[in-house]
Automatic annotation (TrEMBL):
<protein>
    <submittedName>
        <fullName>Sugar kinase</fullName>
    </submittedName>
</protein>
<feature type="domain" description="Carbohydrate kinase PfkB">
    <location>
        <begin position="23"/>
        <end position="310"/>
    </location>
</feature>
<keyword id="KW-0418">Kinase</keyword>
<dbReference type="InterPro" id="IPR050306">
    <property type="entry name" value="PfkB_Carbo_kinase"/>
</dbReference>
<dbReference type="InterPro" id="IPR002173">
    <property type="entry name" value="Carboh/pur_kinase_PfkB_CS"/>
</dbReference>
<keyword id="KW-0808">Transferase</keyword>
<dbReference type="GO" id="GO:0016301">
    <property type="term" value="F:kinase activity"/>
</dbReference>
<dbReference type="InterPro" id="IPR011611">
    <property type="entry name" value="PfkB_dom"/>
</dbReference>
<dbReference type="Pfam" id="PF00294">
    <property type="entry name" value="PfkB"/>
</dbReference>
<dbReference type="InterPro" id="IPR029056">
    <property type="entry name" value="Ribokinase-like"/>
</dbReference>
<comment type="similarity">
    <text>Belongs to the carbohydrate kinase PfkB family.</text>
</comment>
Length: 330
């Protein structure tokens, strides 16, 4: 997948999703009681894009934004991270979504979304027909985008068709958002259908249990391989991940984290690590192990993507170097 025989990879990965404004609470408490927020940028695919770019890989982004301060900030921040924005479109009559995130000392923070009828929810099949895929050989997205609207699901169907026509790799993280679907059976049926059409499917273990009703990673992987997925990688939290393809399977160990600051974005960091590992020709186990490392690094920071590492930082972290951020000695 991505790279064969050590040949140079010149094309990039196109991320498709909804980048959003993010307000992070600066004090604990209910949102209505918080008086101060720090502004940042969030969105699962945006986090993956940042992670891949910091690890030295070429990435682009496709979405629709509102012609508003949030949309302009998205473009500015993507350009600052050297993420290509040439395919992004603006929807004049819709706004860019944003969200609030609570401050917590442990566990998952509360999230409140302002995204109904957002610009990204207007994505449709016609938008995909207009895309120029030159320069990209892979597409990564999550299950959040098809949950936004019926037209967004039509866009995903068109996107899958285009990837097949162009011989591109399609990787998919379900990133379940039941509150956006309403009907859990509809959500599960849809996700399982897309998973079966994916070159790589990247669920968390709790998501996979919801989608399949199965418990063991091995049985879950067999279920998706039978449905047509070429590679399945199941995130198991701090203990690591289980991976399987047609002729290879196993576990990759996780990395110890002394203090978890914020779990949001860990799965996105994992995806960035795995996808760049495959692009560089690493073995499946080493690519998954890299994903585990980036995911571990991500939970050490407050923001959704602020703490994502450079390749130098990642290599030092994976080798056990204590001062891996600064490059100090072991």
């Amino acid at each position: 997948m991505f790279k064969k025989g050590g040949e140079k990879v010149e094309k990039g990965t196109l991320l498709v999703g909804e980048p959003m404004g993010l307000f992070i609470a600066q004090e604990k408490g209910e949102f209505e009681d918080v008086s101060g927020y720090t502004m940042a940028l969030a969105g699962a695919e945006f986090n993956v894009a940042v992670g891949m770019r910091r690890l030295g890989h070429r990435v682009g982004y496709f979405t629709k934004l509102g012609n508003d301060p949030f949309g302009k900030r998205v473009i500015k921040m993507m350009k600052a991270e050297n993420i290509s924005t040439e395919l992004i479109r603006f929807a004049e009559d819709h706004f860019t979504g944003f969200m609030l995130k609570s401050k917590v000392e442990k566990g998952d923070p509360d999230i409140f979304y302002f995204r109904r009828n957002s610009a990204a929810s207007t994505l449709n099949a016609g938008d995909i027909e207009e895309l120029d895929f030159n320069g990209y050989d892979a597409i990564h997205m999550t299950g959040i985008t098809p949950a936004l609207s019926e037209s967004a699901r039509e866009a995903v169907a068109a996107l899958l068709e285009k990837t097949q026509e162009n011989g591109m790799c399609f990787t998919f993280d379900p990133n379940l958002r039941p509150q956006l679907w309403g009907d859990q059976k509809v959500m599960c049926d849809y996700m399982n259908d897309i998973a079966g059409k994916s070159d790589m499917f990247l669920p968390g273990i709790s998501e996979a249990r919801i989608l399949t009703g199965l418990e063991e990673p091995e049985r879950i992987a067999d279920y998706y391989l039978t449905k047509g997925a070429k590679t399945i990688i199941i995130k198991l939290g701090s203990v690591g991940a289980y991976y399987a393809s047609g002729n290879e399977n196993g576990y990759a160990e996780g990395f110890k984290v002394d203090q978890v600051v914020d779990t949001v974005g860990a799965g996105d960091g994992f995806a960035a690590g795995v996808l760049t590992g495959f692009r560089e020709g690493l073995s499946m186990k080493e690519a998954v192990r890299r994903g585990n490392a980036v995911g571990a690094i991500q939970v050490m920071s407050i923001g959704d993507n602020d703490g994502l590492p450079t390749i130098q930082e990642l290599n030092r972290f994976m080798s056990g170097q204590k001062d891996w951020r600064t490059g100090g000695s072991l």
